[in-house]
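Q: What structure does this chain adopt?
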Amino acid sequence: MPYIQKNNPIKVSLSWSGGKDSAFALWKLQKDKRYEVVSLHTAFNEETRRVGLHGTPEYLIETQADAIGIPLEKIFFPSEATNEAYENAMEEFYDKMISDGVHHVAYGDIFLEDLRKYREDQLSKKSLQGVFPLWGRNTERLIHDFLYNGFKTLICAADGEKIEEEWVGRTLDNNFLKNLPPSVDPCGENGEYHSFCFAGPVFKKTILPKVTEVIPKSYTIKLENGKVEKRWVWFADLEMAD
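A:
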């Protein structure tokens, strides 16, 4: 039976990628008296020490957590990890959460039903509950609300088929949004782009990242007709400004 906490705020650990959705979800939770965010948690490739799809290095995630003032829990998975290995690493973390009296995990997901179901299925194995503060929001309104409330984020990774290289490493603004193709979700919810948040109401101080270079990485996909195509992802190599 799911854990239910009465009277006191519900303790939550927030899944933290370092991007805009994580930051906005944190802000929403901090304004909701029902919840207390007691930790952020991030999964890193144990070889590269970076966040998978974002490519953000470990020390910049640590810098964010320090600027926010919430403890960061780090989860490492093997470079060539299978889904099972990843899930085992997460289950170990969930066991630690439970021992610390935390029974809820929050995410910045917006509308991907399959992803939400996957998360909830994994949590249910440990009788944990998911919290989705951004769920069901209109993504166009959401991103404008994000900018209106003073958040700043830069594009740290992008699908080379959908986002021009020139935008990678630049701050997300209204000009970026106006230039997005109609097929691209304004929040990049389908994986079109990822971001690194460096300022906003959840931060006690502004982080000053800089882009050293934009790195293209290729991958192959198998099409329905059996053909294989090579595609590209752009990654902004980030470090702290001097």
